[in-house]
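debug: dumping io for the single-chain case to check the tokenizer round-trip. Nothing else runs in this session.
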Amino acid sequence: GSFDNRNVYTQVEYLAAAHALTGDARYRDAALRGIGFILAHQIATCGGWPHTVPPTQRYHPLLTIADEVTSGVLGTLRGIADGAPAFAFVDAPLRQRVREAVRRGDDCLLALQVRQDGVPTGWAGQYDPGSLLPARGRSFELPSIAVQESVAVVRYLMSIPDPSPKVVAAIESAVDWLRRVQLDGLRLETFEAGQAQFRYHATGQDRRLVEDPDAPPLWPRFLDLADNSAVLATREGVRVASYAQIPRERRTGYDWYGHWPRRLLEREYPRWQQARAAR
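debug: decoded output
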């Protein structure tokens, strides 16, 4: 049972929609079991969700923000709590349990926002469920602030219909941080190279960072918890100083740089601001 990469909660939504279309009680009952599974595995210490249960890897029990685990689960639960038509079969006691899970999850996200000298920034990809400190995910995913994951959290927080001042502050501080850490004048270039076969993929290409004054803003996926420098690593978990020092297997098999915040910053956040101003 893995919540990673938008699993479990998306299947629950699908089953609820199938029940709404067909009236087949099997789909309703399966969706209810899925909701029960989700609620049963909310982490007690904070209100987020683990990567996978039961765990088979070291990082599976960690409280996970990466790949829309906690933010995605909360989005589905919020729909149930707010009375989404497809979930009309959820009775009042269960709906109340869902509301409480959403409240705890929202509080958890606010508590986990990484602070630098007291200033809120973004979110780490994983946290230790006991200490609630940022933790290593896979071997090459070192404790850090994760840009892609932070964008997903901001999108979830912006979906809250009547956000509290604390939620608004979390959104605005994260957006400010994303703007501060963007890289200008750099482009990630893919170029042809000799064919290579690695354990998990084969490639005839390689990647490099090149200077380009016309390039759109670029972001490292991971940023240092203290100084916002790019956190880059080998598959063995050794941090390196530059993109060129990452072995080709990880350069071509993982997205260390990307444009994840662009749509949020250029379109979604301004629309959210306008909608709030119009109220």
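debug: round-trip ok. The CA atoms of residues 140 and 237 lie 4 Å apart.
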